[in-house]
Amino acid sequence: MSAKNETTIFFLSLLITLGLLGIGIWWLKDKIWLKTTNNQELQERISFGEKSFLKSNSVAKKEAIAALKAGNFPQAVSNLETALQLQKNDPEALIFLNNARIGSKKSYAIATCLPLGTDVNGSLEILRGIAQAQNEINAAGGIKGIPLKVGIANDDNNPEIAKQIAKVLVENEQILGVVGHFTSDVTLAAGTVYTSGKLVAISPTSTSVKISNFSPYVFRTVPNDFIAARALAKYMVENLRQKNVAVFFNSESGYSQSLKSEFVSSVSLEGGQVFNEFDFSQPDFSAAKSVDQAAKEGAKVLMLASDTNTLDKALQVVQLNQKRFHLLAGDDVYTLKTLEIGREQAAGMVLAVAWHIDAFPKSNFLRQSRKLWGADVSWRTALSYDATIALIEALKINPTRAGVQKALLAPNFSPTGASGSIRFLLSGDRNAFVQLVKIIPRNPSRSGTGFDFVPISLLAAKKSFN
After folding, report:
1. Nearest Cα to 48, choosing from 128, 141, 110?
2. DSSP code, position 221
3. Is 64 helix (H, G, I), strand (E, B) or coil?
4. Tell me: domain 88-223+363-421, CATH 3.40.50.2300, correct?
5. pLDDT tens-digit profile of 238-263?
């Protein structure tokens, strides 16, 4: 081979090598950039006051966010106090205010993970309970003199996003506990990360039986679906004196599946029979056809085990039922929307919930919540308050991650929350019971719709008195 050819081959090889090297560097750079971008996106989902997750026209709140981002805590405090005077029922603003008052001083930190991008109303209900607990402990001087700081994270009710956020929280050693997540599927997904990171998470709203004994680091303040299902089945047989029921559920929701399965088992134990199961998630689901089929098969009761994503379909069933059958439902149907849309057709429906405001008329929690928000609160607010109180009391005993987990499982751990004593079983479940409530017409109504959820126990007591 000539020297000229050898030189040509050498330069060609060099060009190919440099080209491949360049592609490799570009690929590596791209991967690093993607990793950085993902971290930035995750950081945008977590805030101690540097960003807001709620749409607001409040100039004072926007200025407060800017001040917090710049580290100007006195200015942020002033702006947030003004913002809350104009809109007192904003729990995010109250949390940010308490964080701003702490500033750069020593504090204990917890976080909450909520579907702020997909379920604003549900998230606000939970934030009000957390904000109230934080406000009370800091106003009382903190946890043995050290104030509580709260971070807010938006997981969009997405299991994968929740797992990524959980990883960020685990890696942040300042976070000593988490209130969340919202749905059972998301709690289970994120729970694997909390378990490996040995960080406690307490859900105020996840009820699936799969969470029981799932992890020594995953707790909940809401009773599980077994308890709710048993109460509804027992009521159907003993009070409604009916044994034939059709069940509506969403097979794509862990919560809905759990409640449906537990209810079917409970009905069998009570001597009843489930005539059919209708899946909201099926492409060909028809509320009209399903109700008609249930009627033809002899059902006398319709059980709505719907989740948040299928509430609209459940309300279609309510409307098309035309009060032909008795209606039962789980706690996800306990919303203002049910009263607004269901109205007269929903009257008489019985639901199982963890807490009701009328059952605790003299509680300190109730007095303080009305003072803070200028309105009555829901079971989600009460149970998130209890979750936060549990973390606060555990931090008083031992302000470390390991200490919090150990305190929650201690036999003598029993702080008082909105719904009574907070005690956890070794399974992570709370030792608690559910309340059955009925939708009744009432004027004036607390909801403003002409209909309210009222505890059956109170209705029975009133009937007995009369």
Report:
1. 110
2. S
3. helix
4. yes
5. 999 999 999 999 999 999 999 999 99
